[in-house]
Write a structure and sequence with these properties.
Elements: H1 11-21, H2 24-30, H3 37-60
Length: 62
């Protein structure tokens, strides 16, 4: 039995990343299934960069 996979990224973050990376129009027209594997990979890379930057900032404040 397969459980539904829970999304790690919020919808808001996904839309912000798509907008920043320049393919929000495709998402709005075709949904998330319309983006290329490359675009999806770029979203993940960008999300990791943002998380690393946030972690670096929080460690710097301690």
């Amino acid at each position: 039995m397969m459980s539904r996979r829970r999304s790690v990224m919020s919808e808001q973050l996904k839309y912000e990343l798509a907008k920043d990376l320049g393919f929000i129009d495709k998402v709005e027209q075709e949904g998330w299934g319309g983006i290329s594997t490359k675009d999806a990979g770029n979203m993940v890379k960008r999300a990791i960069q943002l998380a690393e930057q946030a972690a670096a900032r929080s460690h710097g404040q301690q």
